[in-house]
Amino acid sequence: MARLLEMRGISKVFPGVRALDHVDLTVEAGEIHAICGENGAGKSTLMKVLSGVYPHGSYEGEILYDGATLANRGIRDSEEKGIIIIHQELALVPLLSIAENLFLGNEVAKNGIINWPSAFQQTEALLKKVGLSEPPTTQVGKLGVGKQQLIEIAKALAKDVRLLILDEPTAALQENDSQKLLDLMLELKAQGVTQIIISHKLNEIGRVADRITILRDGATVSTLDKADISEERIIRDMVGRDMAHRYPERDSNPGEVLMEVSGWNVWHPEQQGRQMIRDAGFTVRKGEIVGIAGLMGAGRTELAMSIFGHAYGRDISGTVKMGGKVVDTSSVTRAIAAGLAYVTEDRKQLGLVLDEPIVKNITLANLAGVATRGVLSRGREQQVAEEYRRAMSIRTPSVFQKVVNLSGGNQQKVVLSKWLFADPQVLILDEPTRGIDVGAKFEIYTIMNELAAQGRGVVMISSEMPELLGMCDRIYVMNEGRIAGELSKAEASQERIMSLILKNDGKARVA
Amino acid sequence: MADQAAGTGGKGIGAHLGGHLRENGMILALVAIVIFFTVVVRVQLGVDFLSAQNITNLFLQNSYVIIMALGMLLVIVAGHIDLSIGSVVGFTGAVAAVLTVNMGWPVYAVIPACLLVGLCIGAAQGYWVAYWRIPSFIVTLAGMLVFRGLTLWLLAGQNVGPFPKSFQSLSTGFIPDAFGVGKPNMTALALVALAAVAILWMGLRARARDQQFGITPEPVAVFAIRNFVVAAALLFVGYKLATFRGLPNVVVVLSVLTVLYAFFTENTTTGRRIYALGGNEKAARLSGINTERLTFFAFCNMGVLASLAGMIVAARLNSSTPKAGVGFELDVIAAVFIGGASMTGGSGKIIGVVVGALIMGVMNNGMSILGIGIDYQQVIKGLVLLAAVIFDVYNKNK
């Protein structure tokens, strides 16, 4: 087989993070090549380098494509060469028709005037190739996610694709839609289209992939041939690293049950009939740090936000008990009153008012705490801010600094301060160390330990398994909206967590 | 703490002025515009731009803009817009005319009734914006058409008037002189002097409090100059008003409202929450803030202030006309943006808005006195608005 693509020694550095470190990847012409790795292993970054999202010169290393050096200035360059990427979030315009979407930016036109008869004709031919029979004038937004995914592939075919990259194509799909998509991949392979698939689902990889490359911490670990692919081997290669970071010591001494969630069901806020959380339940004890593991899209954030004031989803059912009593958490105000706090994973969009100073952000969730009958005391407010600045060691020249000017770690401390000032019994921390440097991570861990020592309950949602293993007394593993398992500190290991995530995939639904 | 003080001490007055360019710059711009017109009017026409009568006129002509700008600031800070207020002005004026002239209601009943009408209008629009998430631009554009139409219907296309003296005094009345009739009007002078002292005292108190909590205060020179300018302007205007007919009722209403809204926006939890809502609605909601209710409140408040403005306009014209208030929304919105509010919500100050409205008012008045055609006036006002916002954006990006 001829070699279609060779990426050699690719390195990509973001401020403070080395996302890719001398990654090698070779793809033979006509094969389906799978790429596996944990969240943050560098899969998507690698694909962005390949597809020109990060142009030539912004990374180190060399890409050989079809025997020549590839120097993309942008996505258009790579698309011209037949390299087409389908992102996890579909890039379709929901209000336009199928035909309009298929040829978006690539219209069937002469001198800027679209030849609709020809466009419709070509659309029908392309739809046939991907096994769809919808009229070309159908609005894309009216199709299901599965069909939209197929439209994306048809769109790639319209551009004479030679190397098709699919980034977790089945993550949002139902079982039979997934099967259809995998069938289509095999059909395209028979027609000579080389494909790269990023996936976590081992049964899918086993079905379609000819070879598999495993990434970990931004580096290539191994490339396996079909014959060598086994679940154990993949899991070991995906997680096989030492505890890279250190975690502060803590005497764990959990007390009585503080919070108990049971029978929690949540439906997607927009898509009809899509259940995001299925019969989930968990408990948090006093002074305990509980972890929630799972891959992106497993429903961890949805679980947390639906509990916290029903801030996500609809048709929510289930009970939340605090200290044995059922509490109402149906609005954020009520959830706060019940003793909950939720530190969002997206602190810039959901956690902070970026253009406001630190002091105003810290008091936002508990303005009553610095006011008398609705009138604010600026002095008290400032005292509070100074206290947290000291306690959290927020590094800033003044508490009147706008939070937009702070580093990620210091912003996170401001969000934590905000919630601590509201004095919750249970804090749910969603990816509390995402995007912050190692030193600040340690500080956040220390703060978490202090919170537990004060007798609060801490729930930590994280995609970094070492962090969960290093910090938590117990770990719940989530998968496809369910709690797939619970591991005590003694039982928990990266392998156990990964296998709970992977083995459950797809199978539980059939059962 | 010590090195912090040393650090900011080294920053100096220039750096401080740069940091507060917006607030101080607005006041300077207003002063510059007033001086410009004083000189040009003197040279060209040989009359006094700052005559007692013209100053009185300035306030009477622009009171409604300032009053509505106070409410519009809240709406814009919350991240919305209200285009209907011109029509609401016309409509509440019409309601006042029908109640007073046609039905003979007394003033003390008409005023609360009209304010209630304004509240209902604000609530009706705010409901769709807040709870149904219909863009405020659409809802209030609809409101603009609906209430203009209702104004025409209510007045049957006619002017209705005149109003009784008691109603007219809403706009054209003056605070009577408690010390007997005379010039200058001593009541006016005393009130204005009191206001100047109060401003100075509050400034000093704020400084003392800042120092107590370790906030670095602004340099003494800046504080002194700013307060001197403000107090001098206040006393000068007060003296001029006193030598004419005294303090207009409208100026008193205006001042009280300005102080109330400044306090509300800066010192109350509700005020703070509106800024948070405009700054980042999702973060505000996840912090337990009832963002819908606040949006609803902002529109209700706007409705009430628009109805107050509507009555003042009707009282000033001494009749309600179907055309009253046409285009007012644009003056008000322009004043708010000149005053430094952000289009995306979350920022803007009451004092800035008042100064912004005064800048527009002084320019209107000055250009009219100079006999500049309405055509050029529009062009100049448009350019001033654009320049003020460009200045803001430029400063922010720098």
UniProtKB/TrEMBL annotation, chain A:
Record protein name field: Sugar ABC transporter ATP-binding protein
Signal sequence bounds: none
Location(s) in or outside the cell: Cell membrane
InterPro entries membership: AAA+_ATPase, ABC_carbohydrate_import_ATPase, ABC_transporter-like_ATP-bd, ABC_transporter-like_CS, L-arabinose_ABC_transporter, P-loop_NTPase
Major location (coarse): membrane
Assigned GO CC terms: plasma membrane
Domain ABC transporter: 5-242, 261-505
The entry's keywords: ATP-binding, Cell membrane, Membrane, Nucleotide-binding, Repeat, Sugar transport, Translocase, Transport
Database matches in Pfam families: ABC_tran
Annotated GO MF terms: ATP binding; ATP hydrolysis activity
The keyword Lyase appears for this protein: no
Stored Gene3D superfamilies: P-loop containing nucleotide triphosphate hydrolases (3.40.50.300)
Protein topology in the membrane: Peripheral membrane protein
Automatic annotation (TrEMBL), chain B:
Main localization, broad class: membrane
Function, in words: Part of the binding-protein-dependent transport system for D-xylose. Probably responsible for the translocation of the substrate across the membrane.
Keywords, in A-Z order: Cell inner membrane, Cell membrane, Membrane, Sugar transport, Transmembrane, Transmembrane helix, Transport
Protein name per Swiss-Prot or TrEMBL: Xylose transport system permease protein XylH
InterPro entries: ABC_transp_permease
Compartments, record wording: Cell membrane
Organism listed in the record: Paragemmobacter kunshanensis
Domain of life from the UniProt record: Bacteria
A GO CC annotation given for this chain: plasma membrane
Key word Hydrolase present: no
One of the record's GO molecular function terms: transmembrane transporter activity
NCBIfam families per UniProt: GguB (NF040906)
Entries under PANTHER family matching the protein: ABC TRANSPORTER PERMEASE PROTEIN YPHD-RELATED-RELATED, XYLOSE TRANSPORT SYSTEM PERMEASE PROTEIN XYLH
Membrane topology: Multi-pass membrane protein
A UniProt-annotated Pfam family: BPD_transp_2
TM stretches of this protein: 27-47, 59-78, 109-130, 137-156, 186-208, 220-241, 247-264, 294-314, 326-343, 376-394
